[in-house]
Amino acid sequence: ETGVTQSPTHLIKTRGQQVTLRCSSQSGHNTVSWYQQALGQGPQFIFQYYREEENGRGNFPPRFSGLQFPNYSSELNVNALELDDSALYLCASSLEPGLTNEQFFGPGTRLTVL
Amino acid sequence: AQTVTQSQPEMSVQEAETVTLSCTYDTSENNYYLFWYKQPPSRQMILVIRQEAYKQQNATENRFSVNFQKAAKSFSLKISDSQLGDTAMYFCAFAGSDNFNKFYFGSGTKLNVKP
Predict the structure, then answer these.
(1) How many CA atoms lie within 13 Å of B7's alpha carbon, on the beta-carbon side?
(2) B106 vs A97: CB contact, 8 Å cut-off?
(3) Cβ contacts of residue A92 below 8 Å, gap of 6+?
(4) Is B103 on the interface with A (CB under 8 A)?
């Protein structure tokens, strides 16, 4: 157990809908990163939040957005869902970026888009 | 851009035997970290071992060790005395100095440990 939790565990949506995924970071961790893991692939970096501000983004369109809250929780929002958004979404929490890269991953949310 | 390549989609090993998983990466940086993560069917990514690029000594963690060849940009994982619980997907990952918490992952190797 890493102390990082994600909800929900599974989610089914239809194309065009919007979804919000949630992550609760390990206590004291002010950095959270989100990754998308398509079936049979390695995780791909979506973006990172540090002290409630976006701190780096991967090659994902603006319909992927996030929020980070002072209580170590965060959200990943995806608008206008597409079939290719079906994937496992992982969040990972860590201390100050650059201080250490010890990242603790959550168990993920499996999103299916029909 | 950083790329990480794992050329072995799937491997099998007998229990108690030794297996080596391969990973190569491409970067122009000199200061970076490399990782091996294990992802069992429970989906939780678990850190197996970490290597800092400026350290010449290969990292070891109990039955897990790496062969880090910086010039060749190679980072292989050796698992000794394989156990049934080692059955999982294994991902090699890279983090560079622009953001040590931004990981680039390979496509993974599925390891099956057979009794």
Answers:
(1) 8
(2) no
(3) A4, A32, A33, A34, A35, A103, A104, A105, A106, B45, B101, B103
(4) yes
Task: Please indicate if any CB of chain A lies within 8 Å of the CB of B107.
Answer: yes
Using only C-alpha atoms, chain A has a radius of gyration, in whole angstroms, of 13
A73-107 pLDDT, tens per residue? 999 999 999 999 999 999 999 887 665 667 899 99
What are the pLDDT digits (tens) for A1-15?
668 999 999 999 999
Residue of A102, A105, A109 to mutate for B, most B C-beta atoms under 10 A: A105
Burial class (CB in 10 A: 0-12, 13-18, 19+), A42: buried
d(CA B99, CA A45) in angstroms, rounded, equals 12
Contacts within 8 Å (CB) and 24+ apart, A62-66: A66/A34
Q: Which residues of B touch A44 (CB under 8 A)?
A: 105
Contact A70, A52 (CB under 8 A): yes
> Are A45 and B102 an interchain contact pair (Cβ–Cβ within 8 Å)?
yes
Residue in chain A closest to B101 (alpha carbons) equals A101
